[in-house]
């Protein structure tokens, strides 16, 4: 059993047993197996899944949280990096160094010895707190040489969510695939019909101005085939299928059915078919999804209807930024809102300096420029009436005047910035933590950045503090209410 192999906690094994009972439903979500757990949005998606399952339980409907690891995906470049905040508050990205041959499914990749050196580098980069050693030991136990990419990911998730009974699924399992075989055979034989319906749907979306998340053409299919270690899309016309990357390699529907029966792991679904297969395997009452998934599930509705499979409800995951008190204080001192961090570091620094700089001098600059502009406009109007040739010369002179004034103002701000360097460094750290690389924190930063400071209780604390009923973005303090910031380890750089 998969979860036994991943050292699943007792709560998970109990939930697996409950899934054997006919009245038990599944609340399902999924994600790519990101390196060292991936960006923190994975945590928020899992917690949303757990919440919904527990909410159904409270209403008398037995439900189990299930997380589907996208082990069939072949975009290794997208998942082999992870980013943390180091001990100085700067961003550091760690990349698994070994590239697989070809483009295999991620689930088939096995960690080699290079993972040990990388984890040592990670431990050196993280803040040194009372939690660092244990955190890194647990991470090393999950991400050990010889573990597959998804086995390591699964072990780490079981460690993070041990109290919650999360059930994990790796679809690269021959027993699971054989359970979906009848549906996949139907899809193979009905591919032209299914694709025609999806193309028609996409055309309707385009006419109404709606985005099409997954592009579909008349030659598309819903399947990938792994050949010589490369997972590649299949294309089709009538009863003839071929590899997108090698059109000379062709197959009939019967050929694909034969592969499905003999080597089921070679034939895998695309993003539109995958949720349908999930709901064939599990009694799914709801899928917890992000914004992009919500859009492609709307496209998948055509497949559900064509195959006569009931589509589950959709529940949006929470969207979260962990907002440390020190960063909240920095922004407050500068008169900035949390959302202002998305304006970019240069614009943010400029806004900060207008707050920090001598306001009387800045007001004087504004007044002088406004006065110059008004008087030059008055002079230009007079010249147009008496000597139009000089009006154009005045425009050139105006540009030089304002160039000099703006340059002087910029030099003033630079001098002021040097006087307020400490506050600006604090702003840089806040920006790195809240909007790393200008993107939402949940899409970039690994939760390790906060687990090392606040300990394993951070996951449970977040679960109890978040509002899972809202679609509004939430700015969550990682420090439990009533606990002073100074009690949380590791807030000061080493």
Automatic annotation (TrEMBL):
Keywords: Ligase. Residues 320-475 form the Bacillithiol biosynthesis BshC C-terminal coiled-coil domain. Residues 2-313 form the Bacillithiol biosynthesis BshC N-terminal Rossmann-like domain. The keyword Ligase applies. The keyword Ligase applies. InterPro entries: Bacillithiol_biosynth_BshC, CC_BshC, Rossmann-like_BshC. Its EC number is 6.-.-.-. GO terms for molecular function: ligase activity. HAMAP family: BshC. Belongs to the BshC family. NCBIfam families: thiol_BshC. This is Putative cysteine ligase BshC. The gene is bshC.
């Amino acid at each position: 059993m998969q979860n036994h192999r991943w050292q699943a906690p007792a709560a998970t094994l109990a939930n697996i047993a409950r899934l054997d009972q006919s009245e038990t439903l599944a609340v399902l979500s999924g994600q790519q197996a990101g390196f060292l757990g991936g960006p923190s949005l994975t945590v928020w998606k899992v917690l949303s899944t757990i919440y919904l399952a527990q909410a159904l339980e409270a209403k008398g409907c037995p439900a189990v949280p299930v997380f589907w690891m996208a082990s069939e995906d072949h975009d290794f470049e997208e998942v082999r990096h992870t980013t943390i905040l180091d001990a100085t508050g700067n961003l550091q990205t760690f990349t698994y160094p070994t590239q697989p041959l070809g483009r295999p499914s991620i689930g088939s990749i096995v960690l080699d010895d290079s993972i040990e050196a990388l984890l040592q580098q990670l431990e050196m980069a993280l803040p040194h707190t009372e939690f660092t050693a244990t955190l890194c030991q647990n991470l090393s136990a999950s991400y050990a040489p010889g573990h597959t990419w998804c086995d390591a990911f699964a072990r780490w998730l079981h460690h993070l969510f041990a109290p919650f009974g999360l059930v994990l699924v790796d679809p690269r399992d021959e027993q699971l695939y054989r359970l979906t075989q009848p549906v996949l055979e139907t899809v193979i034989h009905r591919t032209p019909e299914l694709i025609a319906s999806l193309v028609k749907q996409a055309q309707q979306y385009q006419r109404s101005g709606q985005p099409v998340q997954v592009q579909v053409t008349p030659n598309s299919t819903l399947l990938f085939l792994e050949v010589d270690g490369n997972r590649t899309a299949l294309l089709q016309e009538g009863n003839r299928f071929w590899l997108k990357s090698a059109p000379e390699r062709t197959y009939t529907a019967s050929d694909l059915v034969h592969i499905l029966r003999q080597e089921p792991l070679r034939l895998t679904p695309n993003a539109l078919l995958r949720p349908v297969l999930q709901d064939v395997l599990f009694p799914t009452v709801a899928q917890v999804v992000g914004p992009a998934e919500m859009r492609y599930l709307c496209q998948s509705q055509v497949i559900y209807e064509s195959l006569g499979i009931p589509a589950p409800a959709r529940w949006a995951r929470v969207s979260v930024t962990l907002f440390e008190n020190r960063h909240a204080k920095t922004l407050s001192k500068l008169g900035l809102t949390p959302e202002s961090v998305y304006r970019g570091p240069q614009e943010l620094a400029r806004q900060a300096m207008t707050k920090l700089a001598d306001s009387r001098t800045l007001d004087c600059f504004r007044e002088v420029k406004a006065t110059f502009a008004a008087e030059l406009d008055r002079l230009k109007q007079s010249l147009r009436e008496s000597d139009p040739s000089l009006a154009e010369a005045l425009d050139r002179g105006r540009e030089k005047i304002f160039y000099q004034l703006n340059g002087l103002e910029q030099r003033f701000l630079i001098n002021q910035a040097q006087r307020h360097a400490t506050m600006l460094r604090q702003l840089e750290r806040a920006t790195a933590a809240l909007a790393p690389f200008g993107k939402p924190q949940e899409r970039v930063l690994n939760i390790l950045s906060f687990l090392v400071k606040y300990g394993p209780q951070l996951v449970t604390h977040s679960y109890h503090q978040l509002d899972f009923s809202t679609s509004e973005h939430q700015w969550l303090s990682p420090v439990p209410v009533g606990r002073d910031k100074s009690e949380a380890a590791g807030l000061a750089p080493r």
